[in-house]
Amino acid sequence: MLCPLCKISDTKVLDSRDEDIFVRRRRECLKCNYRFTTFERVDPPSLKVIKRDGTQEDYDHQKLARGIKLALEKRPFSCTQTDVIISQIEHAIVNNHKKAIDSKEIGEIVVKKLRDVDEVAYIRFVSVFKKFGSAKKFQKEAEKFSGK
Ligand SMILES: [Zn+2]
After folding, report:
1. How many domains is the chain built from?
2. Which of these, 49, 62, 134, lies nearest to 97 by C-alpha position?
3. From ligand 1's centre to the CA of 125, what distance in Å?
4. Distances 60 to 44, 63, 71 between C-alpha atoms, Å
5. In terms of Cα–Cα distance, which of 33, 94, 31, 88 is closest to 60?
């Protein structure tokens, strides 16, 4: 894993701790000695997402992470804090539903968590998610807002 500060050097693991489906790791950059914490997934959860039209697709960690990152864009959170928020949301999604979950329910979990951490991110996510009802459409819309 690359150092988030200098983005040049690889990092070593100082400490590893299992936290359910995540491993919490203390890492240190081999070059600049920057220390940070990561939450890394042990196994990709085998979870199905039921879409609004009733079809199912595999749960996609990247998709979830993208949506949350967009909502938190330009808010006062570091990459590590953002990753922790994503991990906590994913934890709630994966833990409560063993086999399948409605995409709507995922949205509600995200909304609930964002409301706890940042009001602006919450309003951003809710306004677009409610209107469009899917993370993909939300992403497109959020990209418009951020001028991409
Ligand atoms: Zn570094």
Report:
1. 2
2. 49
3. 33
4. 9, 5, 17
5. 94
Q: Are residues 71 and 25 in the same domain?
A: no
Residue 98 DSSP one-character state: S
For residue 1, how far is its CA from the centre of ligand 1 (angstroms)? 11
CA of 29 to the centre of ligand 1 (A): 5
Whether pLDDT at 142 is above 90: no
pLDDT at 148 (0 to 100): 44
Region 68-73: what's the mean pLDDT?
A: 90
The average pLDDT across 33-43 equals 82
Question: What range does the domain containing 27 cover?
Answer: 1-43
Average pLDDT over residues 44-64: 85
User: What spacing in Å lies between the alpha carbon of 85 and ligand 1's midpoint?
Assistant: 23
Distance 2 CA to ligand 1 centre (A): 8
Shared domain check, 126 and 66: yes
CA of 26 to the centre of ligand 1 (A): 14
If asked whether residues 90 and 134 sit together in one domain, one would say yes
